[in-house]
TrEMBL record:
Any matching Pfam family: Acetyltransf_3
GO terms for MF: protein N-terminal-serine acetyltransferase activity; protein-N-terminal-alanine acetyltransferase activity
Protein name: N-acetyltransferase domain-containing protein
Domain N-acetyltransferase: from-to ranges: 67-215
Record InterPro entries: Acyl_CoA_acyltransferase (IPR016181), GNAT_dom (IPR000182), Ribosomal_N-acetyltransferase (IPR051908)
Amino acid sequence: MSYTNSYTPTRDLAIPPTYGLDPYDINFVFPLPHTLFENSLIKLTPFIPRIHAEPYLSQITKYPEIYRYYPYQQFTLDEFLPWVEGFIRRDKGNIMFAIIDKTREGEEGALAGTIGLFKTSAEHLTTEIATLIIFPPFQRTHITSQATSLLLRWALDLPSDSPPGLGLRRVQWSTHPGNLASRRAAERLGMKLEGLSRWTFALPIGAEEGKKSREGDPAEVRPGRDNVLYAICWDDWEGGVREVVRGMLIPN
C-alpha cells in the first residue's frame, strides 16, 4: 500500500502547507486549522502513515502492555497500515493525531503518542476523544493534559471565539472500567461520569481484562469489554469546565 504518490483530493480542505501533508488526504469531516494544535510544549499533527507509522510501531513493540485495555492487539506494519487506511482515513468522522513533544530531541521533537477524534458528526455536533496512547517514557508528564486540552478547546469553543472552535455540543470519552489512569484523566478535565455501557467490545483472544461470554457465543474465545462513559457537553463547558481546561494549557 502506497501513501506517497496517490493523492486524490476529495474536497477542498485548504490544508495549510505547514502540516506537510501532501500527498496524503486527511479526509476529516471538518477543515483543520493550522494555528490551533500547538503550544510551547507539544504539537498535534495529523497521523501520516509514511511519516509516523514506523516510529509509532517501534515504540509500541517495546511496551505491549499499552494495548491491555484495547479491542485490538499488537500490530505489524503490514497490519497497521490497512487499519489506519480503513478504520481512520476512510471514515470522515475519524481522525488521529501524532503527539509531538517539543521539549525532547531538538527542534523536531519526539513522537510521544497519539490522540484522535472518532464518531464525529457535523450534523449532531458530537465527537469522542479516542486512540489516546501515551508511550511510557512520556507518561506522567505534560503530554496528556496538553493534548486533551488542545482538542477540547477546538471542539467546544464557538466558531466566533479566538482561536475559533467547532462549537460542538458533546465530547465523549469512553474507557475500560479498570483503566484508572484514563478515568482520572477524564475527571481532571471536568468530564462527567454518565454510566456503564456493557459488552461494548469483543476483545482479542487471550485478553486478560475481558469478561467470559456464554457457551455457544459465536465469538466465545474473545472476552467481552464494558465501557465507562464520560462526557463534556456545551453547557458544562460554558458552566466552568472551559476555565478548568484553559488553566491546564501552557500558553503558545
